[in-house]
Specification:
Helices cover 49% and strands 11% of the residues. It has helices at 3-8, 22-29, 37-48, 81-84, 98-121, 131-150, and strands at residues 55-56, 67-69, 74-79, 125-130. Strand 2 (67-69) and strand 3 (74-79) form a beta hairpin. Helix 3 packs parallel to helix 6 (131-150).
Length: 151
């Protein structure tokens, strides 16, 4: 696809700076907020382990977690290391438009903390699973969820 045809596909909303390469817009617009690859991997694994009774992106739950177990009051967030700034991975901030990215990541982290706090105030147990944890030891992540559900 030529850059001209790519350029016509994107409507700018003013939230993000215009990248130097149109291909960057293409890559960034492919990022999902729901049903991401890490979410699907985790959900497939818990389903295969017989864990049922959850809701996906349940709007009745404060903070709308990726996975909610209403009867157990357990909320699960599957966080991507880049977007949510994994404390283990410590990924660098992109060099282009670094001020924009720093502010964006700061807001993401604040929003995550706010959601967790709101859930805890409503007596929910909150499990945050990082993308890198899923990649490194999926079984340990599922076992941790089982522990949350058993209490």
């Amino acid at each position: 696809m030529k850059e001209n045809s790519l350029e016509k596909r994107f409507i700018r909303d003013g939230r993000a700076p215009i990248p130097k390469k149109i291909a960057t817009s293409w890559v960034m617009s492919a990022n999902r907020s729901k049903n991401t690859k890490p979410e699907l991997v985790f959900r497939k694994s818990i389903w295969s382990m017989g864990i049922r009774g959850y809701r996906l992106h349940w709007k009745k739950t404060p903070g709308q977690p990726d996975i909610a177990f209403p009867s157990k009051r357990v909320a699960v967030f599957i966080n991507g290391c880049f977007w949510h700034r994994c404390p283990k991975c410590r990924l660098p901030i992109p060099k282009m438009n670094s001020n924009f990215w720093s502010e964006k990541f700061k807001k993401n982290i604040e929003r995550d903390k706010s959601k967790i706090s709101l859930l805890k105030k409503n007596e929910w147990k909150v499990l945050v699973v990082w993308e890198c944890e899923l990649r490194d030891n999926l079984k340990a992540c599922v076992d941790e969820l089982k522990l949350y559900l058993s209490n």
